Amino acid sequence: KTSRMSRFLAILELLVLVTLSACSRPASEEIFIPVSGRDDFGRFAFAVDMSDSTSLYSVSLLTSFACRDRRFSSFRSMPLCIVWESPDGKLYEENVEIGRDEVREASYDKKIIYSPYRSHLKPVEYGIWNMYVKTPEDSLTKYKLYGMGIRVRREETEER
Hints:
By secondary structure, the protein is an alpha+beta fold. It has helices at residues 2-22, 69-72, 137-142, and strands at residues 28-34, 43-50, 55-65, 77-85, 91-99, 103-107, 110-121, 127-134, 145-156. Helix content is 19%, strand content 51%.
C-alpha cells in the first residue's frame, strides 16, 4: 500500500510540475497594429511587458507595406521616431531608420521589413512600458504602409 501511495504521489508531483511549466510566460510576444489602429497622434502604440527582473529583452520591428514593385523601387529607407514611456511616466526618445536591405518577404504587391531594433535590453525600471512609433505620413500614401509590429523576446540571464 505504501509503494502504491508513493507511486501515486510521484505521478501527482510530475503532473503538477508539467502543469506549472506549461503555464510559464512565452519567451517572445508579437504585436501587430494596422494603420487604422494608430492612436490619436498617428503613432503605433505598443504595451511592452518588461516586468521580469531576471530577463533581458530584445525588440525587433516589423513594417508591412501593400505596395507594388514599381512604386516600391524608389524606397531606400524610412525614418522612425520611437518614444518609450517607462512605468513611472519618464520619456525616452530616439530616431532610427529601417532600410530596404532589411526586406524579408516580398511579392509583387506586398513587402515586409524585419529590423532588429535593440538587443539585450535591461530596463531601468521593470514593469509595463509603452512604446510609440511614429512614421512619416507620406509613407502611408507613397508606399502604402499597411501596419507595424514588434517582436519582444525575453532572454533569461545567467543570474537565475
